[in-house]
Fold:
Amino acid sequence: MKRMFLLVLLIICLSIVVMANERNLFVERDENLLGSGYFEDGVLTNGRVETDSTYISVPGLTKNYTFKGRIRIVEMGSQPWNGVRIIIGANSSMETSKLVLTKEWDVRVEFKNNNLNDLIGYFGAINEGMEIDFEVIREGQHFILKLNDNVCLEEDLPEELDAFEEGYEFNLGFESSDCHYEVTNIEIYCPDVPEETPFSTNTPEATTEATKTVEATSTPTPSETDEPKEEKGISKVVVGLCVVAIVLVVLVVIVTVKDRKRKQ
Structure:
């Protein structure tokens, strides 16, 4: 019984350590967005019914990531293809790989402007007022799309059609097709991003209307040198988890020592 108790404690400790090592790479700052999207009372939105794109800055992101959140459809156009797209890869030429949630055509896939009609995710039509919890899990070329905790699509993304560009910080985001949307609870995790990787503090600009490219500003403005709203360093949640893990380890050691003394 004691051995089982110790085993359970060790499993809990390991789980807590793993949780503590996860860092949400999403930062709620307008400066970390590229495109027409913006934050309003903690909600990422495009503000109105239109066709547009919004990219999220995640420096150091690789193809091994989890991207999740909650999308609310506020208003949509009347065409069956209208809706919101989840961008799962992009490059500096503004080509994208995206998962398309439509008004009537279910979930579609579009890689580098190629509609792959043989890849269809079964979720159903989306409607105004609907809230959808999404989760995208990428492991190299393999991706999984979950909608409302159900696996909707699981496929291998052809490398020649993959728009994901290593070293480009705007690989994730959202695209609208005559749709006003709101996104909350955004979380981005990637174990390959070093802990010391800084979040972007530059405001990217589009150099032309046809082709947008991100330019790093040479002379930082006062707003760029200000500290981000988010606290730097280890968060209170991580500290708390680590403390709990240490306490559990100490308990395991105490129980083990007492058990050995009794046997002697």
Summary: DSSP finds three helices and 14 strands in the chain. The domain at 28-225 is CATH 2.60.120.560 (Jelly Rolls). Helices lie at 2-21, 222-225, 236-263. The chain has two domains: 2-17+235-263, 28-225.
